[in-house]
Specification:
4 helices, mainly alpha
Length: about 70
């Protein structure tokens, strides 16, 4: 999640603590809106510091596409 916080800090021009709060809020929102265990998987992935935001997006697209047989 550190990578996402860094990107938000740079892009939004806010402090690291503000960016972390924003990222936490978005993760919480997504986790509540996603079906079943998907929200927990996304949170676990983001907290693992695995890759860049582009990697997160690519992985999410692959997972969602898999749900629809793509």
């Amino acid at each position: 999640m550190e990578g996402i916080v860094k990107v938000v800090t740079e892009k939004a021009g806010i402090s690291e603590s503000q960016a972390k709060s924003a990222v936490d809020a978005v993760i919480s929102f997504l986790k509540d809106k996603m079906p079943g265990g998907i929200g927990g998987q996304v949170e676990g992935f983001l907290n693992s510091n695995a890759g860049t935001i582009g990697d997160v997006v690519d992985t999410a697209k692959d997972k969602v596409g898999g749900l629809f047989g793509k």
